[in-house]
Specification:
Number of domains: 1
Number of helices: 2
Structural class: alpha+beta
Largest sheet: 8 strands, antiparallel, barrel
Strand content: over 45%
Number of strands: 9
Mean pLDDT: 89
Radius of gyration: 19 Å
Helix content: 10-25%
Distance between the termini: 60 Å
Low-confidence stretches: 3-16
């Protein structure tokens, strides 16, 4: 019984520490103007989804932690993004989350998931942030996942 109570106490302390760490997490803002550009609604695209209709993505701020969530879909082809933005710089932001692409002619039409920390960047004066980890982990192709400025 004593061992069970000690184990329960350790579990509660561990759970509490994780909850406090998550609650304390905030996005590092290196450029306030870039944060302002990021907040709100954006268009989201994956070049393989042949559609005149871009998807939608939204960046929200909850107690100093920015979140990104969005989707583009046409039939069975889709791209979804969901996670948090850990850092915002002048031309880049660091995203920690999940990106799932499903394209009928890539990877046998099966979903391909990327998880973890990824970088989106504005290059060559473009009007969008492009995922820099372009190599599809499930097939020998490059995926252009773009979040467009408003």
């Amino acid at each position: 019984m004593k061992t069970t109570l000690i184990a329960l106490g350790v579990l509660l302390l561990s759970t509490s520490a994780v909850a406090e760490e998550k609650a304390a997490a905030k996005t590092v803002i290196e450029d306030a103007a870039a944060k302002k550009k990021l907040l709100g609604a954006h268009l989201l695209t994956l070049q393989w989804i042949e559609s005149k209709q871009a998807g939608k993505a939204t960046v929200t701020d909850k107690d100093g932690l920015l979140s990104l969530e969005g989707e583009q879909r046409k039939g069975t082809d889709a791209v979804t993004v969901k996670g948090v933005i850990t850092k915002v710089a002048k031309t880049t932001f660091t995203f920690d989350g999940t990106i799932v692409t499903t394209v009928s002619h890539i990877n046998g039409g099966k979903a391909c998931e990327r998880k973890g920390e990824m970088t989106f960047a504005i290059t060559q004066k473009r009007k969008y942030w492009r995922l820099q980890q372009m190599d599809n982990p499930c097939a020998k192709v490059a995926d252009y996942v773009d979040v467009f400025m408003r």
